From TrEMBL:
This is Major facilitator superfamily (MFS) profile domain-containing protein. Signal peptide: none annotated. InterPro entries: MFS (IPR011701), MFS_dom (IPR020846), MFS_trans_sf (IPR036259), MFS_Vesicular_Transporter (IPR050930), Tet-R_TetA/multi-R_MdtG-like (IPR001958). SUPFAM superfamilies: MFS general substrate transporter. Pfam families: MFS_1. Residues 18-390 form the Major facilitator superfamily (MFS) profile domain. It is found in: Cell membrane. Keywords: Membrane, Transmembrane, Transmembrane helix, Transport. It comes from Brevibacterium salitolerans. The chain crosses the membrane at residues 18-40, 52-73, 85-107, 113-132, 144-165, 171-191, 211-231, 243-263, 275-295, 301-321, 333-357, 363-383. It is a multi-pass membrane protein.
Amino acid sequence: MSTPEPAAARRGTSPRRALIVGSAALFTDMLVHGLAVPVLPLLPAVVERGPAATGLLFSSYAFAMICATLFAGRIVDRHGPRTPLLIGLLGLALATLLFATGGPYWLLLTARLAQGVAGGMSWVAALSLIAATTRFEKRGQAMGIALSTLTLGVLLGPPLAGFMVEHFGTASPFLLASGVALADGALRILLVRGTARVSDDTAGPFAVLRVPGSAAIVCAIVIGAGVLSAVEPVLPVHLRAGALTIGLLFGLASFVAIIANPVVGRYVSTAPRLLLGSGVVAASASLLLLGWAGALWQTSIGMALLGTSSALLLAPATTLISEQGARSAPPTLGGSFALYNLAYAGGLALGPVLAGLGVQQAGFPAALTAGAVFLLLLGGASLTRLPAPRH
């Protein structure tokens, strides 16, 4: 016997509408995030502050996102997902308008914080909306579709921003983002009707974290998100290349990750430890190659290897963390995705700060070499604590 249709669906928000709105919200947030990658590090107001301040600027998004996530959960519990979706829309609109000014630094930092608040609200509300309108047995598939739009936004953002900066100026990517945000906002207003909360999946992320082996998976997620985000604030200034070149390099990493994801997914159930171990090695090797590259083609190989490491780390971790949710008491799917999102945001927060400080203190090659060694030690220790896969 199938489970009854959730209340939100009966009151006007169908599962299809919820998936459209949720996917669009996640895509828009990561598109704006990607649009900023080749632009922000090259702005005069950012360059003059140095690598550490640049790293802080990039990390501030994730720190604000983590804080907003905690408040967003309470708002969803009291008022349903519609209210935080609209709050997220306002934050995103504010961020894009402030980014378009190009400075000063404190204003860009304010914009980045606003974007983080918008992301935290939108991510929690989008996934909660999908959960509240989709039967439990179909919820995992719907969540997977929504989360795949994150990678699409990251893939399109950097090269698109680079092209627009080269032809239309530094403000153009963020003006485009404003238009995308308006279209996304129309979807949120027109398609979201029901505001029911989830009643069949109430365990939170910390219930999943308490399951033996979850900490090791969280570590893999942090590494997968943190390595790419660590390169974002420091590589553009190191290369002294144009925005289009920077955008294409980061687009290459995302494209390779998209191609590698389904290949990696075939072997998650049989060799998760091997995949994660290969991901740690690939991430470390990519940092070494980027740190000591003497030509653009070598940097390109390093970025492709970075994208491969992302797939090797994040694709297995997504499956393993959902299995940990099934092992928690009570079993939970929503708690698994919440823990994944918090771990991913943690990587986005730590990576840029550590990279910026390292480059400012020791220089680009030495900082990335130290990061590669640290990843090998941290990743190796985590692999020994991975849970056995379910069969």
